[in-house]
C-alpha cells in the first residue's frame, strides 16, 4: 500500500477514519497497554539495573501520554491535530535525550544488568507492542497525528526486540555493553521518530496557512 508523506496527501488520505469508533478504540487500547507496561518496566529496569529496560519504560510513558493527546484532538481541525503532533514529536525528542544521558551514566559506571529479567520483560513487551502495531497499521497513512501514533507503536516493537537481543548479549558476554549499545540505539531511534513527526506536522501547518497568505496578497 502506498504511504503518504506530503502534507496534502496526509490531510486527506482517510478523512472518515479521523473520528471513527475504530480509531478511538485502537487509541484507548494502546493507551492502556502502554501505561501498564510503563509501570512494569520502570520497576523491572530499576531492579535489573538495565539501561535498555529503563529506556523502554520511559518510551512507554511518553507513548501513553501521546495516545491520550491523540484522543483529545481526534475530530478536531487539521491545524489542531498538527499542533498536537508537534507536541508529541517534541516529547519523543526530550525522552530520547534523557535515554542517551542515562545510557552514558550506565556506560561510565560499568553497570552489569540482570539478563534474565531483561529477557522475560522484553519478550512480554514485544508481544504486547507487536499486537498494538498490527492494530494501528491501517492508520499509518493518515495525517501527522495518526502517523505519529503508528511511528510510536512501530518504534516500541523494534525497541522491545532490541531489549531481548541485549539480554542475550549480556548473558553471553557477561558484560553490560550490549545493554548500553541497545539503549543508545533506542535513543537515536526516538530522536529520528520525533523529528519525522515534527517535520510532517510543520508541513501541514504551512500548507494550511499558505492559501490564506496567497489570498491576502491578491
Give a description of the structure.
This protein has 218 residues and is mostly helical. It has a single domain (16-217), classed as Alpha-lytic protease prodomain-like. Helices cover 83% and strands 0% of the residues. It has seven helices and no strands. It has helices spanning 7-12, 21-48, 51-73, 78-109, 115-136, 144-173, 177-217. Helix 5 (115-136) packs antiparallel against helix 6.
Beta-strand content bin = under 5%
The top-level CATH class is Mainly Alpha
Number of strand segments = 0
* Corresponding CATH architecture: Up-down Bundle
N- to C-terminal separation? Answer: 40 Å
Summarize model confidence as the mean pLDDT. Answer: 78
Largest sheet: number of strands, sense, barrel closure: none
**In terms of per-residue confidence, which ranges show pLDDT below 50 for 5 or more consecutive residues?**
1-16, 210-218
Shape: elongated
Order of secondary-structure elements: HHHHHHH
Structural class assignment: mainly alpha
Strand and helix layout:
Blueprint: H1 7-12, H2 21-48, H3 51-73, H4 78-109, H5 115-136, H6 144-173, H7 177-217
Helix pairs in contact: 2-3, 2-5, 3-4, 3-6, 3-7, 4-7, 5-6, 6-7
Structure summarized in a few sentences:
The protein is mainly α and 218 residues long. The protein has 7 helices and no strands.
Amino acid at each position: 500500500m502506498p504511504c503518504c508523506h506530503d502534507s496534502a496527501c496526509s490531510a486527506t488520505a482517510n478523512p472518515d477514519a479521523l473520528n471513527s469508533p475504530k480509531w478511538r478504540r485502537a487509541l484507548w487500547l494502546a493507551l492502556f497497554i502502554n501505561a501498564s507496561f510503563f509501570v512494569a518496566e520502570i520497576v523491572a529496569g530499576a531492579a535489573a539495573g538495565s539501561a535498555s529496560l529503563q529506556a523502554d519504560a520511559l518510551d512507554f510513558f511518553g507513548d501513553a501520554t501521546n495516545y491520550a493527546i491523540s484522543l483529545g484532538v481526534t475530530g478536531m481541525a487539521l491545524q489542531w491535530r498538527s499542533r498536537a503532533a508537534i507536541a508529541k514529536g517534541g516529547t519523543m525528542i526530550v525522552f530520547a535525550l534523557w535515554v542517551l544521558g542515562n545510557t552514558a551514566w550506565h556506560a561510565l559506571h560499568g553497570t552489569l544488568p540482570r539478563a534474565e529479567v531483561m529477557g522475560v520483560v522484553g519478550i512480554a513487551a514485544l508481544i504486547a507492542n507487536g499486537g498494538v502495531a498490527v492494530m494501528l497499521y491501517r492508520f499509518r497513512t493518515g495525517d501527522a497525528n495518526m502517523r505519529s501514533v503508528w511511528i510510536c507503536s512501530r518504534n516500541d516493537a523494534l525497541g522491545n526486540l532490541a531489549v531481548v537481543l541485549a539480554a542475550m548479549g549480556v548473558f553471553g558476554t557477561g558484560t553490560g555493553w550490549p545493554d548500553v549499545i541497545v539503549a543508545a540505539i533506542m535513543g537515536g531511534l526516538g530522536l529520528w521518530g520525533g523529528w519525522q513527526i515534527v517535520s510532517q506536522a510543520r508541513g501541514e501547518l504551512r500548507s494550511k496557512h499558505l492559501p490564506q497568505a496567497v489570498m491576502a496578497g491578491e
